[in-house]
UniProtKB/TrEMBL annotation:
Belongs to the purine/pyrimidine phosphoribosyltransferase family. Residues 31-158 form the Phosphoribosyltransferase domain. Keywords: Cytoplasm, Glycosyltransferase, Purine salvage, Transferase. This is Adenine phosphoribosyltransferase.
Length: 180
């Protein structure tokens, strides 16, 4: 029997030099296209969180929406999207963060969660950790308790997982890739 993490990792495509020279992009679309692999991935997350006291799943724009909404459905929980600036139609709170190549801003509806709600924050990949840290800050600003961050892929050499863990947020990763 193959290790589920290794099975998932085998279905992630590496695209060299995208979006720029020197970057090894980890593409999760092949695992999403294969129903068996996608089921194994979702089941890993479901089994991790099914007996925890979680109130809502929050997903980071955009691939965190795919995993997060399916996970929320499977756990019978609500789903909260954390979007790039200017994409949400209602009153929002925002958080700017640094990227490797500049800065960006994410937003959350001001009524997305209630004080004391326990949230799992999910995305496809953690690189420098800026996006997840911004999402965590937004949720906490609304009074939520971010129980754990969760991603499919960790790129540990970029320091994001260390940043997240050093902030006090537990982090669950399905698989790691060395290098960028």
């Amino acid at each position: 029997m193959i290790n589920p993490s290794e099975y998932i990792k085998e279905h992630i495509r590496t695209v060299p030099n995208w979006p720029q020279e020197g970057v090894m992009f980890r593409d999760i679309t092949p695992l999403l296209q294969n129903p068996k692999v996608f089921r194994v991935l979702i089941d890993m997350f479901v089994h991790r969180y099914m007996d925890q006291k979680i109130d809502v799943i929050a997903g980071l724009d955009a691939r965190g929406f795919i995993i997060g909404s399916v996970l929320a459905y499977e756990l019978n929980l609500g789903f909260v999207p954390i979007r790039k600036k200017g994409k949400l139609p209602f009153h929002t709170v925002s958080e700017e963060y640094e990227l490797e190549y500049g800065s960006a801003t994410v937003e959350l509806h001001a009524d997305a969660c209630k004080k004391g709600e326990r949230v799992v924050l999910i995305d496809d990949l953690i690189a420098t950790g800026g996006t997840m840290m911004a999402g965590k800050k937004l949720l906490e600003r609304l009074g939520a308790i971010v129980v754990e961050g969760a991603v499919i892929v960790d790129l540990p050499e970029l320091g994001g997982s260390k940043l997240i863990k050093d902030s006090g947020l537990p982090l669950f990763t399905v698989c790691n890739f060395d290098g960028h």
